[in-house]
Design a protein that fits this description.
The complex is a heterotrimer. Chain B is mostly helical. Helix content of chain B is about 65%, strand content about 0%. Chain C is about 70% helix and about 0% strand. The chains are: A alpha+beta, B mainly alpha, C mainly alpha.
Chain lengths: ~100, ~250, ~325
Amino acid sequence: MGDTKKNWPLWEIFVRSKNGLEHRHFGSLHAADAEMALENARDVYTRRNEGVSIWVVESKNVTASNPQDNGEMFEPAQDKVYRHPTFYDLPDDVKHM
Amino acid sequence: MKKDLYNYILGIADNSLILAQRLGELCGHGPSLETDIAITNISLDLLGQTRSYYQYAAKLAGEDKTEDDIAFLRIERDYKNVLLVEQPNTHFGHVMARQFLFDVYHLMLMEQLQNSKDETLVAIAKKGIKEVSYHKRFSSDWVKRLGDGTEESKEKMQEAINAMWRFTDELFDVMEADKAMIEEGIAVDVSKMKETYYEKVSEILEEATLEVPERKYFTRGGKKGVHTEHMGYLLADLQYMQRTYPNMTW
Amino acid sequence: MSEQEVKNLEEIFEARIARDEKIEPKDWMPEKYRKTHIRQISQHAHSEIIGMLPEGNWITRAPSLRRKAALLAKVQDEAGHGLYLYSACETLGISREEMYEQLHSGKAKYSSIFNYPTVTWADMGAIGWLVDGAAIINQVPLCNTSFGPYARAMVRVCKEESFHQRQGYEIMLTLCNGTDEQKEMAQDALNRWWWPSLMMLGPTDAESVHTEQSMKWKLKRKSNDELRQQFIDQTVPQADILGLTIPDPDMKFNEETGHYDFGEIDWDEFWQVVKGHGPCNKERMKARVDAWENGEWVRDAAMAHAEKKANKKVAKAS
């Protein structure tokens, strides 16, 4: 074995706490395959009745944006105030809008 | 009738208690943190079932008996668990073989117990069935992983299955007290489950690329209170506090 | 990167933390920040895992079914907490296996209190009450620490841990309301666990090497001595309710300061245990190494099986 040894990979765990809510990232754990990841997630992250549905994604399959690109990625959205309702001035008399 | 029911309940409950005790020994010593947590969950499920059964049995017994009196203050000959569940945690393969061979039986029992005429037992079975289904899924998956894993794991898993196999036949023995309860429609006639059990077990073992041992030589005795030599030590741990400090509240 | 550039980045980085912004794993961070966090978080994780052992010692001997279930659930939580913390640490680019390797080789430290033996059932009470009590004082401020994954793990840990201390105190309370023998058992446990619990909050400020930097990074909010005083002030009245005596003849409420004065801590003992010569250091390490080594064939088999399954899937698809 030695160098070729493969450890259980890391998985990201998403749990829906109840129907009507989205799956939320709960944490991560190790498992040999997807089935084991589901079972481990059930035992690790829902022992206190925290969930009704679980997604597992192997961590290496997550593509993440790079914080160094945060300027070009996210700042251009900052000044687009016209996307927000408060940008538009209406007299106070106008109701239900 | 009450005496028979009491004995019948203990016959089921003791299996859960003794297996929970064995699994409890492993807490902190599993092959990975995740597996450790999973096995502890199984132990906690079994312990919860044990308490429901014993609380019911204590009520039947009257005389201010408590669940703890039943759990801790009997002599070895009065524990009626099957030999299978008291077998030691020799290695992880043994733990999973023992669990798997018990879970398949346990789930079938719970499914049948749902139809009992005794409401309390039905309630316990209905709750237990969900827990035990998961146990069976967990242990079957591990039997397959270890059976169809590496050369070494296959060898170890086969050895473990072989070691546990001789305790399986006892699961289906019907005791004298059970007979009356079966007639009343309260107890499950486990003798009728035997063939289906071995079919189900064989199916998983084959999937795990393991050999199904011959159904030839079996050891029995637990249901009559005649245990293997491991049992005394298990009880020494289990009963230590209650025996050393009698009649105290904890 | 030039030295000047690194210095600029560091300034920006420190300013972010000062503004209470969180640092996330992919953000740029000074190497020292990464190293310090790996050390502290893994140490914290190791403490949870080693901490399972002294309490695990009593699972099979718990005196009632209710206590057995509670203890099992508690020790299981500690496994969970270790897992959350290892995961948080892994985001810094170290694997769990590497962290285990550091633990098993003795390179990594863990809370030295777990090197004391649990010799009676009352120790389950004393650990829950005192050790978890001290741990909570240490941990609550970490829910706001600067490194996001650590802070999030700590929020979960603190939420789950709230039952641990109550569980311990309830055990003590039951013993103290019980027979003379039981009360004696409780007092004996307090006698043995009191001083190690005080040591658990770390060396005195004068001796503590990391404090200033850790304060800046919000790995620490109060100094060891402040935390220790807080622990003592809240624990002494709890001992009074139990009717137990704190094993410190110098323990006295100081009207002027509003705090309890207390006696000299035996720091020689502390350093001896830290350096590996406590009553159970070797046993604890052996238990962990055994579990890991005995589990190797199991972990390998699971990987081999997963690969076989994946290959079958591919073969089927093509």
